[in-house]
Amino acid sequence: MGDKHFVCIIGSGNWATTIARNVGNNAARHQMLEPLVNMYVYEEYIDGRKLTDIINTTHINVKYMPDYVLPPNIIAVDDVVEAARDADILIFAIPPTFVSSCCRTLLGKVKPTAHAVSLIKGFERGDDGHIILISGIIMRQLKIPCSVLVGCNLAHEISNDNYCEGTIGCRDQKFFRVLPDIFKSDTFRVVVTDDADCVEICAALRNIIAFGAGCADGMELNENTKAGLIRRGFLEIIQFVDVFYPGSRMATFFEACGLSDLPIVIAS
Ligand SMILES: NC(=O)c1ccc[n+]([C@@H]2O[C@H](COP(=O)([O-])OP(=O)(O)OC[C@H]3O[C@@H](n4cnc5c(N)ncnc54)[C@H](O)[C@@H]3O)[C@@H](O)[C@H]2O)c1
Ligand SMILES: O=P(O)(O)OC[C@H](O)CO
Questions:
Q1: Are both 161 and 39 inside the same structural domain?
Q2: ipTM value of the model?
Q3: Which of 16, 141, 187, 263 is the most buried (most CB within 10 A)?
Q4: Number of domains the chain contains
Q5: Which residue range(s) make up the domain with 146?
């Protein structure tokens, strides 16, 4: 762990662009990080100009975050292989639908020692009906470990420097110290745990409870009923993890990935 880590962000949407400011600021001053950070941008044309050119000259992602200035050490790259080739830490922040195709493109092209971090919420469904974690897809396809960062993380609030919290589920002890240092800021508190499956599952399943709460509103059920539904849904997440990911810790459900993220999604 002596050498500096080169960081690459894969994605340039709302969340990727928001977190890129923290990553860029931290990379510029952290002794364990290379100051330049690549950001893979799915190329688009805005008024005839490439989005990558716009980002690299104005430092603004006019498509996804038009009022938000990125640090100049964030370098937009339109080729995912080129962006990721030298990376020691690969941050995935794209919608779940694009993960498999992106990993197929990257297969054999990333450093075998690289470590991935998924900021993606959601999961895929396997042929047998089982849940497949997004980090699992990344690990299986790229054959590198993948940690996760999730929490009560509405991008527009973080971009406004409103206080918020995130939980990192770290799958490699070697990265325990450096991962929080990559993402945190004065207003973004990041806690790291090794209970990575539980962290990711909390974020993946909370949408189901939020959907149920939305249905309760739509059916004009009262607040007592909705609160009961949310409590029972949260309990079901705990029971699900207990059955399918044994060994997870109860305390993890009360970190940002669990209890704080749930009300956000229900309200939003
Ligand atoms: N927005 C938030 O507040 C927020 C916060 C936390 C986590 N997340 C999670 O982050 C993930 C991304 O969400 P988002 O809100 O940034 O999405 P978004 O809709 O803002 O971004 C879409 C991204 O997909 C890229 N894209 C489009 N077509 C593509 C293709 N064919 N191949 C590869 N990339 C393509 C776009 O360039 C863009 O970078 C989701 O899993 C979401 O749950 C979002
Ligand atoms: O709705 P999502 O999956 O984009 O998640 C948004 C934020 O993470 C809520 O905390």
A1: yes
A2: 0.95
A3: 16
A4: 2
A5: 7-194
